[in-house]
Amino acid sequence: MMTADPSADPSAATSIETHIVAHPHVLYVGTPAYLIASTNSDGTPNLAAASSHWALGDMLCLGLEAAGQTAQNIADRPGITVNFPSAPLWPALVRLSHLTGRHPVPADKSKRYRFEKDKFGAAQLTPQASELVDAPRVQECALQFEATVRRMTPGLDGGYFMVEAQVLRVHADPALVPEGTGEIDPRVWHPLIYAFRHFFDRGPEAGWLDSSRWAPPPVID
Ligand SMILES: Cc1cc2nc3c(=O)[nH]c(=O)nc-3n(C[C@H](O)[C@H](O)[C@H](O)COP(=O)(O)O)c2cc1C
Predict the structure, then answer these.
(1) Rounded to an integer, what distance in angstroms lies between the CA atom of residue 181 and that of residue 213?
(2) Could you tell which of 35, 100, 157 is best to mutate to test the pocket of ligand 1, judged by most ligand atoms within 8 Å of the CB?
(3) What is the per-residue pLDDT across 14-23, written as a single tens digit (0 to 9) for each?
(4) Of 13, 34, 41, 214, which is the most buried if we count CB atoms within 10 A?
(5) Average model confidence (pLDDT) for the chain?
(6) 110 C-beta closer than 6 A to ligand 1
(7) What is the average per-residue pLDDT within 42-54?
(8) Is any atom of ligand 1 closer than 6 Å to the C-beta of 48?
(9) Which region, left, alpha or beta, applies to residue 8 given φ > 0 means left and ψ of -120 to 50 means alpha?
(10) Atom of ligand 1 minimally distant from the CA of 64
(11) Rounded CA gap, 20 and 61, in Å?
């Protein structure tokens, strides 16, 4: 690995090339996967596997394709649950990976997807009643968010929405919440990581911020 010359101009970019140009067919570098539940027009639940998201404060921004049943549902019925599986649940996401709750299946999805009304059953997962929204939670997921969609912004190519959802309530497996804290213990929580179409458990702890509720004294300058 190249190290920086401390006497060099700090604004100058190095011209030494250390990387090669890659052409990955997807840009999924590794984020927690999630299961989003929404409500169909007849009141039954839909469930979909997804990974595109970020969180700031109590807002989640989800990247959801426009052709899916989930996007249709949440445009009309904004109550959703966002459920985070741990690594052992990865086969459930594979079971969902060729299913859509949309009927008829849109032409551009028809090669890879088939309609399934009972996504929970197909995924071998258990719907659990929510407290604040109609969409059920996924009982097997250790971390479950109830949320309401506040805005759906069409993406540039029309193929996806940026969905801003406000988290209303967080439900956690008690094993994740040290007694009396209400916080999630990051050392106990193991999200399922989705990277370049493979699933991983997270690795060992590498570090922390001093703003963490669990932070020991800093070890770096
Ligand atoms: C691991 C995984 C991650 C996925 N990530 C997303 C995603 O971030 N956004 C999305 O819209 N679809 C994603 N999909 C595809 C949807 O699950 C798929 O389009 C599904 O048919 C949607 O279901 P629905 O039509 O019933 O809503 C992902 C699928 C898998 C298996």
Answers:
(1) 10
(2) 100
(3) 899 999 999 9
(4) 34
(5) 94
(6) no
(7) 98
(8) yes
(9) beta
(10) 11
(11) 32
Task: Using the atom order of ligand 1, give the atom closest to the CA of residue 73.
Answer: 27
| pLDDT exceeds 90 at position 124 | yes
**How confident is the model over 20-49, as a mean pLDDT?**
97
Nearest alpha carbon, ligand 1 atom 10: 64
Confidence of residue 165 (pLDDT cuts 50, 70, 90): very high
pLDDT bucket at 9, cuts 50 / 70 / 90 = confident
* Best residue among 41, 97, 119 to mutate for probing ligand 1, ranked by most atoms within 8 Å of CB: 97
Give nearest CA residue, ligand 1 atom 31: 97
Structure tokens at 75: 């445009």
The Cβ of residue 46 has, within 10 Å, a number of other Cβ atoms equal to 26
